[in-house]
Structures
1.
Amino acid sequence: SANQMDKIVALCKRRGFVFQDSEIYGGVNGFWDYGPLGVELKRNVREAWWQDMVSRHDPLTAPADSPDAYQMVGVETSIIMHPQVWKCSGHYDLFHDMMVDCHACKGRFRADHLKVKLVRSTDGDPVVAWTFMPGSAEFDWPSSGDKKLSKAAAAAVENSGQDAEAAPVDMDFDTYRKTVLETSGGSEAAIPHCPNPACRGKLTEPREFNLMFKTILGALGTKDDEAFLRPETAQGIFVNFKNVCDSSRVKIPFGVAQIGKSFRNEITPRNFTFRSREFEQMEIEFFCHPDASQDWYRYWRDRRFRWYSDLGISQDRLQLRDHDPEELAHYSCGTADIEYRFPFLDEGEYGELEGIAHRGDFDLRSHMEGKLVDRDGKLEVELNEHGQPKYRGSGKDLSYFDDQSRERFVPNVIEPSAGADRATLAFICEAFAEDEAPDDKGKMQVRTLMKFHPRLAPIKAAIFPLIKKEGQPEKAKEIYRSLKEAGIAVTYDEQAAIGRRYRRQDEIGTPWCITVDGDTASDNAVTVRDRDSLEQVRVPVDEIVDEISRRMRG
Ligand code: ATP
């Protein structure tokens, strides 16, 4: 619920996971900073992805008949690329959202993703109204009171005597406008006005808004020096396809992975880090023979879905959704989204974590031949009014020669494209929990905890002396050092009552607390407390590094 999301956002700030960017100056919409714990969490997310997809992937020990006998390599490419890349890829002409603005208050919203619900006024006339439920109305007010206004608007609908019986429906602005006109008998007065309740001004026609950030290369600043911040990392892989083939002796099928920042000038950044203007992607381009591409597509769909559930995302909040044929990009023979039920979404709604797309040979061919368009179901180079290619490709041969089958072909591509920030946010939302646990006096208290998977938890163990004397701090610091030396992220805390110290660790998701107490001097053992079960067991000091390492492996 929205209430739960407020608690999560507050915890993220209080404990140093996520801050609003440039907060002391009032912040910039769509930009976020990770604090001391957030940076560790996000590093762990990236690291888990890189390890599972690239460094621990082992084609040699995979059984010969298993699909896992392919190679995986990585690259790290530039954020600013040759402008021709975006012309040939289609982003220059096509990477836009439809936007509607308000003349009066200068608010704006995305016209292709409206959420509208049919509400009936008390006298029985059907009225089409916006849903203003926080998080669902993608409307960006210019003032920083955005959230307050959307709550006020929600109240306005509630109080209008209209009965919000129907579920919200997704539609674009034109369909919405038509629906309003039809249900109102075509009256001009019913033409939708600004959804800002403090404004209600006239709206513009929907117009295209390119999402790529522009920048200038060099000092002259003419149109020819225009460049773009990449809106996806994928193109850096495609343009290096030949370099990777020539330098690393990979054989098809193989995958190239990349993690890096991408930028999109989103019209309505919202829902915490879910839709930001600067974000990080974790993308794989998997190159294969066209005949095997459908099998590889299914392989990656399932493999990527499992990755999230293996890291603790529960199956009842995660779904794999195949796109309908009309949702597919023209060149794609299949796309599926991995989606998560974020708490800021309405009941029954899911938000995209990752898309897995079968992209055919579209990308490599675009960079060979020039921007491609679909003509009667066939991809052809788009021509300008002189019959020349609208945007020229590189002219380089990006086909692949299989020396076993003696066949030359342009590989097909399967693209699992994930967001590091969205995955991190899903792990945060999934981890957040409240239960009851006894405090130092045995009284039951609400306990906030983050149930991070041990691989993702920013800190794996906290070491406490029960009291600050009798050599307990020295012993505890010794254990702390032995864990640090083993490369395990640990912390030491001797401040406040033991119960308070447990709570602090629960709230940041530390899976285990290790306490040195009065018995340690005699039995040379410590108590290990489990965050989730609250179970406490005695472990010999000499075995603590092994025990924590074993628990981290799961
Ligand atoms: P959406 O429909 O939510 O805008 P998309 O379909 O445009 O997303 P892709 O272009 O498929 O997204 O990008 C791949 C992944 O990159 C997404 O699944 C998401 O995890 C991440 N991503 C895309 N846009 C953003 C953003 N504005 N903020 C954070 N992550 C993003």
Note: The radius of gyration is 27 Å.
2.
Amino acid sequence: ELKYDYLIVGSGLFGSVFAHEANKRGKKCLVIEKREHLGGNVHCENIEGINVHKYGAHIFHTNDKQIWDYVNSFVEFNRFTNSPLANYKGKLYNLPFNMNTFYQMWGVKTPEEAKKKIEEQIKELDIDNPKNLEEQALSLVGRDIYEALIKEYTEKQWGRPATELPAFIIKRLPVRFTFDNNYFKDKYQGIPIGGYNKLIDKLLAGIECKVGVDFFKERGAWERLAKKVVFTGKIDEYYGFEHGRLEYRSLRFESSVLNSDNFQGNAVINYTDKETPYTRIIEHKHFEFGKQDKTVITKEYPQEWNSLNEPYYPINDDKNSKTFTAYRKRAESESNVIFGGRLAEYRYYDMHQVIGSALVAVKKEFDG
Ligand code: FDA
């Protein structure tokens, strides 16, 4: 007799939403998580009373009212609005590219002047078939914005010259001719009041969870416990890397507690010059309008991925896409395993998207 209906491998948003919905429908679930805590990449650690985003800054945003209502049914969200700044060689610019940025860059005061400036720069370059990321970006925003706010930042992120990066990485570069520093265009955004752990705890309430357990260590034994497996780990690992390894970009986070109540006055400041080795500094308290005496900041350094650090961003180039297709074909033929989430689907998912995708999997599983 099988003890559980579902063994859920991974306690990130995909696994947690699936477990919650299955449990609600009377199914018995066991969640196993290889890290020492639940929540996957949205997990926060409390330091000096501040919720520190351990795996990079997480700002919830969506246009989908159903998803917004869904998360708000577990935890209330605050009114945090992401309005990052860029520091280029010591000078600050507002992001995303908007009238404030154009004023800071050229002194232009009207949308008409700003448009003229950008159009002139694009025309001067005369690129009609962008061959790489550099040409693509130049053809969209012109030289000044590209050089101060895109080029060196992107090269740090990818560890390669922009001329060697494919054009498809940048599809659009929205420029806004209003004085509006709100980074996201979505209707809803915010941070859970009390942090993301609260959301995860609510989702997993009443469900058996084991942390510090790697599925692959005793795979057979775990598989024999449940009728079905929901797998949210790396799909190539699930198949023993038989079709080759999927590649990622990684990050290194360097956090420090400072004896200051406000270090940079904003949650996110990007460093877009090549002289600064990190790409941004996060000051976590500002996500929740914190009034603590101290502050915690995190410098984010892009890194090559290896088997020792975290796989963060999938590299969706031709080679990796082909490898993934081979794994996906095998996954499609499994009848007792559901693959979901950023690692099993080898794609970058925002939180609202991964929740949406888990709810689709739930619907398919329980409503046919
Ligand atoms: P997630 O990785 O969270 O969970 C998978 C879990 O499975 C992990 O906990 C892992 O340890 C576990 N696992 C893997 N293999 C296992 C095994 N063999 N045995 C047991 N457990 C195993 N989104 C957004 O909307 N706004 C934002 O601002 C950001 N910011 C952001 C910054 C950075 C740096 C990154 C990398 C990502 C974001 N995101 C984001 C995206 C967000 O992190 C993402 O959508 C979700 O965390 C994905 O949830 P998953 O459940 O898919 O994976």
Note: The first strand starts at residue 4 and ends at 9.
